[in-house]
Amino acid sequence: MNSKEIRKAFIDFFAGKGHQIVASAPMVVKNDPTLMFTNAGMNQFKDIFLGNQPAKYVRVADTQKCLRVSGKHNDLEEVGHDTYHHTMFEMLGNWSFGDYFKEDAINWAWELLHDVLKIPADRMYASVFEGSADDKLERDDEAFELWRKFLPAHQIINGSKKDNFWEMGDTGPCGPCSEIHVDLRDDAERAKIPGQNLVNKDNPLVIEIWNLVFIQFNRKADGKLEELPDKHVDTGMGFERLCMVLQGKKSNYDTDVFQNTIAKIAELSNKKYGDDQKADIAMRVIADHLRAISFSIADGQLPSNNKAGYVIRRILRRAVRYGYTFLDFREPFICKLVEVLKENMGDAFPELVSQQGLIENVIREEEESFLRTLETGIRLLDDLVAKAKAAGKTEISGDNAFTLYDTFGFPFDLTSLILREKGLTVDEAGFNAEMEKQKERSRNAAAQETDDWVELKKIEQVEFVGYDHLEAEVHISRYRKVTQKNKEFYHLVFDKTPFYGESGGQVGDSGYIEFDGQKTLILDTQKENNLTVHIAQKLPVNPAAAFKAVVDVKKRTLTMNNHSATHLLDQALREVLGTHVEQKGSLVNSEYLRFDFAHFQKVTKEELEKIQARVNELVRKNLALEENRAVAFDEAKKLGAIALFGEKYGDFVRVIKFGESVELCGGTHVPSTGQIGSFIITSESAISAGVRRIEAITADRAEEFVKKHMDELAEVKAVLNNTQNLKKSVEDLVAQNSRLQKQIEEFERKAASGIKDELKKKVQSINGVNVIAEVIQLDSAQAVKDLAFQLKGEIENLFLVLGSAIGGKPSISVMIAENLVAEKGLNAGAVVREAAKEMQGGGGGQAFYATAGGKDLSGLSAAVEKAKSFVK
RNA sequence: GGGGGAUUAGCUCAGUUGGCUAGAGCGUUUGACUGGCAGUCAAAAGGUCAUCGGUUCGAUUCCGAUAUUCUCCA
Questions:
Q1: Phi/psi at A620 (5° precision)
Q2: Separation of CA A692 and C1' B51 in angstroms?
Q3: Which of A334, A409, A601, A818 has the greatest count of CB atoms below 10 A from its CB?
Q4: Residue A334 — φ and ψ, nearest 5°?
């Protein structure tokens, strides 16, 4: 069976058992502060488990793209070294939300693996939770008995709390789980050591493929468990591992999921997979990371320097590093692999097909930029090596290596590799110590303590009334205290709310809630999945009261202007640039709007003018908002609504129409576009290969912007006697200025040359040295310097001291012919330092030319005399 | 969110006790050599040393802020 057939077999099986098949959620998570990426199939159902949202279907199955870059068994740095870890993987899963429980879950798992997919029974092992004294839990005998129907007792293993008790986090839903392991060793090996001894022992051929989680408890902040009213099943099966088992391979990377990519890498690098261990690791790393990066970009997450974007950048750079070190790639190559990936997975994940061009461009750009970083690092490292060698050292300090890594992004393993080649070592312990310090700093800065929710009023779902009302009577449904850096604030959840929680690029509302004359400020409103969390500075005195919730109208109105303008901008962009323009991100707040979109070249000035004019035209048409809050998703698409990649949509969506602009959007909008008033583009820039950014302002801000510019112009005109032709006047002024500048220089030159002739007459000969020591009238340090250098060229054996007042301050320059410096041991620097004392100053320079300044103008001639006295 | 760098000629970068006429390579322009191209040689142009403030007799250099940008951590 090939991988496509295997995926289908799973989906068909559970569809046959009454499961609703749903689409994979985006791999990049939005609206969940605790998670950057989907790391398990259950993520998209989190709200159901938490009780924040009712289940739409009680039985669901899917294949979910997941990304794991950290965690107990999956450090990014390990991926590729073995044959079964990945960053991005597919997780096949089936769920029951308060419907079937252990019995059906286990029966069906067995039926699929054994009866449908034909995995031999004697190669399968099941594990069950052994119980835990800490939590006062017995062994999961129920699961054990269910497995006994299919497996002999010795193939059922007791698992520890670590392996067989699943928890969503420190707190929240949890429960025992039961894993299915498969033994892939050959018969001789199996005869030697029984498979049950190797389960959960990190043997690459005795592996867990499916985990069935039985969610029956809720873990509270004090560590205690409470029984859930509704019990759920959550399962996850590693798709790549399943393919390995069914295709009779010993490594995930040997399955058809990865082999096409690896073959392409081998071709590009002119190496063969299987010839060299290190090259093999590199190929696996690249084949794995390619998937993670491509899917992230397709989901709209571009590499950047913080948060999720940074994780993607790090993964990509790791792939480049391995290609660079072990496969000798010196130019972008990962971008050339996207084509193969698309052929492999484009069927199941159409976003790869439609986003291919963007993915390739973004990857190429990132590769180029990192190769530049590497070059810089190599140069810096060469310097360090040269210095170390000159000092007779053979080790580079951990501190230095860390600076290379931390400040210049040069990977530590490359540092030690290059040093090894040059016969040097690096202090790894020192490096790690510095690394720890950095982590400590960041942890302290980000440390946050969250208390348990205190529930006051049970609700099914928060009702958002903010589309229609900016005030409402609300009750606090639950609250909790959050402590960060000694600052306390409170998270409040209301039964209903007029406050818009930050999402879809639009910032959250602020405002206040009021009871009995007491106001509590709401600083911000955030969304945690489906929960709208209001951030308050303090807890109201009487949390159970009925509050009047009031949104900051000014801020909301300005934000609405910008949000609606963003839709108009989107439409104008499509009209002017073409329909390839796709939104890649946006930010909308009360100050301005920012819109990122796919476009492969700079937007020209003419295009920008057209776009801005078009938006303003749409504003003036005063198009009325047509809002429909519950349109079936398919229906909305038929209307031509613009949906975003990487965005998770429900079955029913909100559709926002302004004339011809139709978008799926949850944000708040103006009743008609005339309210936007005016729209001004303030900047256009590139944020990544193939992605441009436009920033713009509207309404009040636009008006202020125009006023500021007009005022400035008026002021400038006033300075120029209210000239009719400002541009010409300024040009004339500039031309005149440069002409005068040249004249001044000419005069100065003449003056200097007059002074020069005077000075040449005053040469004294002292012991064969031609001495000039005079105070002259020159007001420019540069002119004095020029004069000194000219005299040096014209008089041999010169010892020159020039005193002058520059900007009202005394200054002396000493010039000594090079041969005198050498023969007589004279040093201009020493001379000026000594002489400058006469005028309360100091100075320095080189042996042949030095300058000094001072505070006391009356000491100038004394200083000149003093300098002269150095002639021997 | 927190740390560390960087910003000098069109480009890539040097520039240490604060005073070096602010440099190199590449590129550009001009001239010479060659039948032409390529090239070689010679010369020249090109700099608010990111911006603003402070310390100092004096700041590209030290300090602070801002902007832009790179990078690491969370």
A1: -70, -25
A2: 27
A3: A334
A4: -65, -35
| CB crowding A494-518: b at 16 or more within 10 Å, else e | bbbbbbbbbbbbbbbbbbbbbbeee
* Cα(A40)–Cα(A71) distance, integer angstroms: 12
Write down the residue that tokens 């604030």 correspond to: A489
Mean pLDDT value across chain A:
88
Q: From CA A33, how far away is CA A508, in angstroms rounded?
A: 14
Residue nearest to nucleotide B19 (CA to C1'): A845
In the complex, which nucleotide's C1' lies nearest to the CA atom of residue A406? Answer: B72
- For residues A148-174, one letter each, b for 16 or more C-beta atoms within 10 angstroms of the residue's C-beta and e for the rest, the string is eebbeeebbbebebebbbbebeebebb
What is the structure's pLDDT at A389? 81
In angstroms, rounded to a whole number, what is the distance separating the alpha carbons of residues A822 and A288? 67
Average pLDDT of the segment spanning A505-511:
88
Strands A769-775 and A809-816, bridge-based pairing: unpaired
- When pLDDT is averaged across residues A564-571 and rounded to a whole number, the result is 93
Task: State both tokens at A169.
Answer: 């986090």
Alpha-carbon dihedral angle through residues A259, A262, A268, A274, given to the nearest 10 degrees: -100
- For the cut 80, the answer to whether the pLDDT of residue A730 exceeds it is no
Q: Give me the amino acid identity at A145.
A: E
3-class DSSP state for residue A773?
Answer: strand
Strand, coil or helix: A374: helix
Amino acid A193 CA to nucleotide B46 C1' distance, rounded Å: 78
Instruction: Point out which residues pair with A627 in neighbouring strands.
Output: A656
For residues A523 and A511, what is the distance between their CA atoms, to the nearest angstrom? 7
Alpha helices in A692-824 (DSSP H): 699-719, 726-761, 781-794, 818-824
| Cα–Cα distance for residue pair A139/A161, rounded to 1 Å | 10
Residue A842, nucleotide of least CA–C1' distance: B57
**Lowest mean pLDDT segment, chosen from A53-62, A209-218, A305-314:** A305-314
- Kindly state the DSSP code that residue A624 receives in the 8-state scheme: B
Q: Which nucleotide is nearest to A441 (CA to C1')?
A: B2
**Does position A136 have pLDDT exceeding 80, yes or no?**
yes
Residue A578: both structure tokens together: 């073409």
Tell how many helices (H) and how many strands (E) occur in chain A: 25, 34
Would the ipTM clear 0.95, i.e. be above it? no
pLDDT the model gives residue A675: 94
Burial pattern A209-228, b for ≥16 Cβ within 10 A else e, equals: bbbbbbbbbbbeeeeebeeb
d(CA A55, CA A98): 9
Between CA A607 and C1' B46 the distance (Å) reads 33
Residue-level pLDDT at A704? 84
Q: How far is CA A666 from the centre of its chain?
A: 24
pLDDT tops 70 at residue A737:
no
Residues A536 and A523: their CA atoms lie apart, in Å, by: 6
Other CB atoms closer than 10 Å to residue A690's CB: what's the count? Answer: 23
Å from the A330 CA to the B8 C1': 30
Name the band, by pLDDT with cuts 50, 70 and 90, for residue A72: low
Angle between helical axes of A412-421 and A307-326 (0-180°, round to 10): 20
| Residue pair A385/A396 in contact by the 8 Å Cβ criterion | yes
Start-end of H helices in A507-602: 553-577
Q: What is the dihedral of CA A547, A551, A553, A555, to 10 degrees?
A: 150
Nucleotides of B under 7 A from a protein CB: 1-5, 13, 17-21, 56-58, 69-74
Q: What is the per-residue pLDDT across A813-868, written as a single tens digit (0 to 9) for each?
A: 888 887 877 777 778 888 888 888 888 888 887 778 888 888 888 888 888 888 88
For residue A71, is pLDDT > 70?
no
Q: How far is the CA of A692 from the C1' of B8 (A)?
A: 30
| A707 CA to B16 C1' distance (Å) | 50
